[in-house]
Design goal:
Layout (H helix, E strand, L loop, with lengths): L4 E9 L2 E6 L2 E7 L1 H10 L5 E5 L11 H10 L4 E4 L5 H10 L3 E4 L1 H5 L2 H10 L4 E9 L5 E5 L4 E2 L4 H11 L3 E6 L11 H8 L6 E4 L5 H9 L4 E4 L1 H4 E2 L4 E2 L6 H7 L6
Parallel strand pairs: 1-4, 1-12, 4-5, 5-6, 6-7, 7-10, 10-11, 11-12
Antiparallel strand pairs: 1-2, 2-3, 7-8, 8-9, 13-14
Length: 256
């Protein structure tokens, strides 16, 4: 039976775990270390930690905090936020991070992707692509946690990231973030069909069936935040993750 990765995404702001809706209205939901410990117990495939305030505050990664999180994670850990230099990537890898995720710096300095891939290998370098529709309904890549429109088409940007040496794309639909409205399948289909590297879909998941649809649209893996943190219909905070048997029956069995 073929498996795909189902990856919880944790957003960090001022040291706390937060969740957002369309990259806004951040709500504190707990401590990231505790969240990682819970996901350990639930045997998740891997986990992503994104410091969403680092780039906006024009600071680098808080290596000591990331090292503490990595030391508690029993699964592969990806980290993104505030990375602008190869030396920071070297520190993150030494701290226990297995995948480095680049967003704003990937746009502003694609050479960093190439340098990082040469240092640690493409399999450990992820380009994060945050996408939102403009007023004319065209998909555009945003950086700085969704605050800056690059006016670049995501397909064009995805190809550029692949050419630069990224080994994976984290494709985030800003308009779906935290909405429980399902993934943007049109976006997933357009980007995944344009590149040969894995595309991890994120933004909008509410059920395992949404995972199935994302994979059907071309995603190689799926990620979610709110789905694993909130319990509907009242958005009560309760960290959860599907049981392996549930994933086998409702997701893996539908994948060819």
């Amino acid at each position: 039976m073929k498996r795909i990765r189902v990856i919880p995404a944790l957003l960090i702001q001022d040291g706390g775990l937060v969740k957002s809706v369309k990259f806004k209205d951040h709500k504190y939901v707990g401590d990231p270390i505790n969240a990682v410990k819970i996901f350990n117990e639930k045997e998740v495939d891997e986990i992503v930690v994104l410091d969403i305030s680092a780039s906006l505050e024009k600071r680098g990664p808080r290596i000591a905090e990331i090292k503490e999180i990595a030391s508690e994670a029993f699964m592969p850990l990806g980290y993104g936020g505030g990375i602008t230099r190869l030396s920071e990537i070297e520190e993150l890898i030494t701290a226990g991070v297995e995948k480095v995720i680049l967003n704003s710096s990937a746009f502003e300095n694609p050479t960093l992707i190439n340098d990082a891939a040469k240092y640690v290998g493409s399999q450990s370098i992820v380009a994060s692509v945050d996408v939102k529709k403009n007023m004319w309904g065209k998909y555009r890549v945003f950086i700085k946690n969704g605050a800056k429109n690059t006016d670049i088409d995501p397909v064009e940007f995805a190809r550029k990231m692949e050419d630069a040496g990224a080994g994976e794309l984290l494709l985030n639909a800003i308009d779906r973030d935290g909405t429980f409205g399902g993934y943007d399948e049109t976006l997933i289909r357009s980007v995944s069909s344009a590149v040969n590297i894995p595309v991890v879909a994120i933004g909008g998941a509410a059920t395992i069936n949404d995972f199935v649809k994302a994979v059907g649209a071309g995603a190689s893996a799926v990620s979610a935040g709110s789905m694993f943190v909130f319990q509907l219909p009242h958005r009560a905070v309760l960290i959860s993750y599907p049981r392996q048997q549930e994933l086998e029956e409702k997701l893996f069995s539908y994948i060819n």
